[in-house]
Known about the structure:
Blueprint: E1 6-9, H1 15-26, E2 30-35, E3 45-48, H2 54-67, E4 73-76, H3 91-119, E5 122-127, H4 131-134, H5 140-160, E6 165-172, H6 178-181, H7 185-194, H8 203-214, E7 225-228
Parallel strand pairs: 1-2, 1-4, 2-3, 4-5, 5-6, 6-7
Amino acid sequence: MEESRVVLVTGGSKGIGRVIAERFRDAGHRVAATYRSGGVPDGVLGLQCDITDQAQVDAAFEQVESELGPVEVLVANAGVTKDTLILRMSDEDWDQVIDTNLTGTFRVVRRAARPMTRARFGRIIMISSVVGFIGSPGQLNYAASKSGLVGMARSLTRELGSRNVTANVIAPGFIETDMTAVLPEETIKGYKARIPSGRLGSSDDVAAAALFLAGDGAGYISGAVLPVDGGLGMGH
């Protein structure tokens, strides 16, 4: 087995983030996860934290450091949506999504970067979305926030690469979660028709990609975008 690492997953109470936390835990890593409500899986250190607040981010990291050790693998997964067409999109709709998905990721990455560079080891994994590459009506704010993670990861790679810190992006496609469960059958059918694999993905598909990028075998991969989308975003 690979060395046990200290892993922090943001947005670990539900959906993809929860499954990522569980899979890292099951692989023998020491895992902490932030949440705003709802709690985290058993065997995972839960940290109530709103990533739009730097003081809460700092407090969460301090708790992980004191209970588990310095964060070696960061999975920046926390995100929100405020979907509406541009002509109806308010400043607040825009600001809330950018502040959580893009600036929030910046806050956690900035806090993680110094201990990683000091230790000369780090894995930064950002959860983006196929929407950041192919666009989606009603998701201007979300798409902008998710595509912005690519520029962040690539700049981090140039800044931190010589210190054995990698920064990569996972771009999930349509994944079966609570968010997709409420969609009408026809909508799901429409998605499946556009996906070469002919099915929605699972949170396990995304977690497997995260485990790979965090592992020893991925040490020479940085600044990459790993699509987990059944082929939906090909060519982007």
